[in-house]
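sanity check this chain:
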Amino acid sequence: MEVKKDQGAPVYVINLLFSDLIQFCGRIIHLFLSPIGYVITFVGLTASIGFMVCISLERYLVISKPLWYRFRRNIKTYVVVCVLVWTLPLIISLILIMITGLSMFFTILGCLLLLPFPFFIFCLVGTIKALSGALSVPAEEKRRIIAIQVVVLLIYSLLFLPLITLCLLKEYSSILDNLVFVCIYLSPLADTTLYLLSRKSFLDKFLASLCSCKASDNQEMSSKDTESTTAPHTETV
């Protein structure tokens, strides 16, 4: 059974929003049961990064490998990927905790969470290069795909890199700890932008408004230039 056209990213975005809901529940449980709340929040955070990787890779494959992606896109593939994203980080974390100490666990965790950073950059650059030669893709669709890739990279860089830096640091930093606290709480709000970008109707209206504003500004500038050039001629006459 095949998935409808362009439904890959929304599947991962919905799971991403569900991971944000789990993080929210984990923070509430943390007020009463601290260890369990930490575990639930951790599962939500790692799943959030995992589904951001899926969104970025899916957008890249749609453009760079369209035929390969088309024949391998089905319900079974999405179910397997989603199950792996939800379970694999938890299994790896449990194994690391059993074979290493707590400080070593956070160091290894920070290194693992840092791996998606060059991957996001690769997908963004590769998508831009592939779109430059994709003549059959409409301009609106190109802007939408690039916007999704840019937003994924920005969310990861601004909201998750402080957390990764805190895991890799040997010394405690109260300033960085407070920054991580703010970023974690802003993460669910930022993820909603990916859901909005995955909806064509919203992005088309947003880009149309930007284009209309830019066109009006250009028209105003051209009218001013015309007036400035015609003014000396009228004076000489």
Notes: Residues 135 and 142 are 10 Å apart (CA to CA).
